[in-house]
Specification:
Strand 6 and strand 7 form a beta hairpin. The protein is elongated and about 70 Å long. The protein has two domains: 86 residues, Pleckstrin-homology domain (PH domain)/Phosphotyrosine-binding domain (PTB) (PH-domain like), CATH 2.30.29; 70 residues. With 166 residues, it is an alpha+beta fold. It has four helices and eight strands; from the N terminus they run E-H-H-H-E-E-E-E-E-E-H-E.
Length: 166
Amino acid sequence: MDKIILSTKLSIDDFIKVNYHMLYRKLIMKFITGVGIIMLILIAVSFNDYETFPWFQLLFALFVTVGLPVQLYFSAKRNYNTNNRVSELITYEIDKENIHMIGESFDTKLSWDKVYGVSENKDWMLIWQTQQIANVLPKRDFKDNQLQAFREVVKLQSRLKNKLKK
């Protein structure tokens, strides 16, 4: 098999969406958000039953359901605007041995044995360098049969954590 070569450039909207995905893919964040929503519902339903208003519970619930997403939005926007590498055009050359990433300000070759994992959702392929850091490949940038070829390369990596769609 030849190399898979694709070029991509993340927009600010892509970067913000990826940040939300990375935060809310974790079960603990889903749980905390669920607790916040339940707390808001309970406060609203039993509003007249309180001797003293549950300000702490309300503030906590608002923080996890509204504050965190708003903070993440502005943080992602700031990071996109201040970190030039995030918004660069990046060319990926992928084969069964390596992932070669060529940006406007960097040139990196990563062997598959150094990759933590690969995951997929409806919009992106994520190549995880660690549990927290991933390279984002928008599916829209794959041509012809490149997406299927990429999945096949990933499946060849026996020790790799992969969460690909079937």
